[in-house]
Amino acid sequence: MGDTLTLSVIALAGTVLWFLLVANIVGALRKVFARPTVRKAVDGLTGAPLIALGVNLANATRP
Q: I need a labelling partner for 6 at 20 to 30 A (CA). Which of 21, 44, 45, 50 fits?
């Protein structure tokens, strides 16, 4: 029982630290991501794979 609790606390601490790190990085880069050119680039880089995934799923469901 003690090992499970110890591992759970370690996993929880690692997860909390990870999310704090990501939140601080995003907070620091907030002004960069607010620029229209950067926002368009990020939208394009994230939108293209999502469109490709949608096309792939549409083709996969055909008989």
A: 21
| Residue boundaries of the structural domains of the chain | 2-60
* Paired tokens of 54: 């949608």
Is residue 33 within 8 Å of 39, Cβ to Cβ? yes
The CB density around residue 11, as the number of other CB atoms within 10 Å, is 10
Distance from C-alpha of 13 to C-alpha of 36, rounded to nearest angstrom: 36
> pLDDT tens-digit profile of 1-36?
779 999 999 999 999 999 999 999 999 999 998 999
Helix (H, G, I), strand (E, B) or coil at 40: helix
Strand ranges, E, within the chain: none
Residue type, 31: K
